[in-house]
């Protein structure tokens, strides 16, 4: 029988999923409330808890009515040491721990809980429980419950107010109130939903974020890094210049992560291609220059920007970017053909002729010949009003 009992307790405490889970917070015994109050017969009183620490997401409280000479058998704080997190109480994983007082008196009381001093004061004066966030109407000699931010409105401020009404019409009562807060590690740093949202909104106005079609992941990354390094109070105390530097440094770090930067540049390339097809070459050039200026330009980016410069009659700039692309890959014939176009349109027939002749018997892709691509490009130029007397001279070179 003893062995079976030990096995049961071992299973409850050592094998429970909630006990094995990583702790996300702690019971704050330093800021727990423990008060013994005498309530006169037929009287109402209110008791304010100690200020709840930043990051409080749960509280567990215990109320015990004692006879005159009774003492508590064990504090609530000591009991909660056996429970790793608040959910263990409601899920029964700490079934071997009885958080209710082992003793209590014969007296009973009603109580209500309030989230503001004003509501509690009204209750004390009038007995009104309209604004109570929790009400225990049935008189009890002991009670214990868990309140959480996701299921109760009682934790809206930095304290809780308990209101007690004695149901003893003759004798005074002795009530012991114990309240222990559970503090979430992450929230204890002061980063609530509102100020996290402010950081994300500020991040979205940054130059880096504006490069992206969707900057949500990037800004969440920046927020995480800020939260990990600073508490909210610490961050707010930084000088404006220091906060700006933090945004910049963390932004560079997040942007350098491949999942963010690769997506950003891939999106920019798609946008540039679409803009070019729509004839919006100026906007396409802006997108492509962003990629190239960030040092992420590929051969196709240089070819694309060179093409857009040619089609907007900016031949000198086209030649410059096409030469840069040629240095990246000297075998890319699309770059070389566009470079020949650039020389031709920039009145340098001699340099253009050398390139046109050199590659005339090759293909620029697996299915398109150099000669056919030249003809297609010349037709495109003419449709856009880009004319040259040398177009025919070039085509005659191929005969």
Explain this structure to me?
By secondary structure, the chain is of the alpha+beta class. The protein has 3 domains: 20-187, Jelly Rolls; 192-256; 267-397, Tetratricopeptide repeat domain (Serine Threonine Protein Phosphatase 5, Tetratricopeptide repeat, Alpha Horseshoe). It has helices at residues 2-14, 17-20, 76-80, 87-91, 117-126, 193-204, 207-210, 216-229, 232-237, 240-256, 258-277, 281-293, 299-311, 315-328, 333-345, 349-358, 370-383, 391-397; strands at residues 25-27, 33-39, 44-48, 56-66, 109-114, 134-140, 142-148, 161-166, 173-184. The strands form 2 sheets. Strands 1, 2, 4, 7 and 9 form a 5-stranded antiparallel sheet that branches. A 4-stranded antiparallel sheet has the order 3-8-5-6, covered by helices on one side. The longest helix is centred in the C-terminal third of the chain and has 20 residues, at 258-277. The radius of gyration is 37 Å and the shape is rod-shaped. The N and C termini lie far apart (104 Å). Residues 1-21 form the signal peptide. This is Tetratricopeptide repeat protein. It comes from Flavobacterium polysaccharolyticum. Keywords: Signal.
């Amino acid at each position: 029988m003893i062995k079976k009992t030990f096995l049961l307790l071992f299973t409850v405490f050592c094998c429970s999923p909630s006990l094995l889970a990583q702790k996300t917070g702690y019971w704050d015994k330093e800021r727990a409330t423990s008060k013994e109050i005498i309530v006169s017969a037929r009287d109402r009183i209110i008791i304010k808890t100690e200020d709840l620490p930043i990051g409080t997401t749960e509280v567990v409280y215990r109320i015990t009515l004692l006879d005159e000479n009774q003492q508590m058998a064990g504090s609530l704080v000591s009991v909660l040491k056996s429970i790793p997190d608040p959910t263990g109480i409601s899920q029964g994983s700490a079934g071997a721990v009885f958080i209710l007082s082992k003793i209590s008196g014969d007296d009973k009381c009603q109580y209500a809980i309030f989230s503001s001093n004003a509501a509690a004061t009204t209750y004390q004066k009038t007995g009104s429980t309209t604004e109570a966030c929790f009400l225990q109407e049935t008189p009890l000699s002991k009670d214990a419950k868990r309140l959480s931010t996701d299921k109760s409105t009682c934790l809206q401020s930095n304290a809780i107010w308990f209101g007690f009404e004695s149901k003893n019409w003759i004798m005074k009562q002795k009530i012991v109130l114990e309240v222990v807060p559970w503090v979430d590690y992450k929230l204890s740093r002061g980063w609530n939903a509102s100020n996290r949202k402010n950081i994300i909104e500020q991040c979205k106005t940054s130059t880096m974020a504006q490069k992206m079609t969707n900057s949500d992941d990037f800004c969440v990354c920046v927020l995480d890094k800020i939260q990990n390094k600073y508490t909210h109070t610490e961050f707010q105390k930084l000088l404006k210049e220091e906060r700006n530097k933090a945004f910049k440094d963390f932004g560079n770090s997040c942007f350098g992560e491949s999942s963010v930067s690769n997506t950003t540049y891939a999106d920019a390339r798609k946008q540039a291609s679409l803009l070019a097809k729509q004839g919006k070459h100026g906007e396409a050039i802006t997108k492509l220059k962003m990629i190239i200026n960030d040092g992420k330009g590929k051969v196709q980016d240089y070819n694309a920007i060179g093409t857009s410069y040619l089609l907007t009659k900016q031949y000198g700039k086209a030649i410059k970017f096409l030469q840069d692309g040629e240095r990246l890959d000297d075998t890319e014939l699309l770059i070389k053909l566009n470079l020949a176009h650039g020389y031709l349109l920039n009145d340098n027939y001699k340099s253009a002729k050398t390139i046109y002749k050199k590659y005339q018997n090759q293909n620029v892709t697996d299915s398109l010949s150099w000669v056919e691509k030249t003809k297609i490009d010349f037709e495109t130029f003419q449709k856009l009003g880009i004319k040259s007397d040398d177009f025919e001279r070039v085509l005659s070179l191929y005969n």
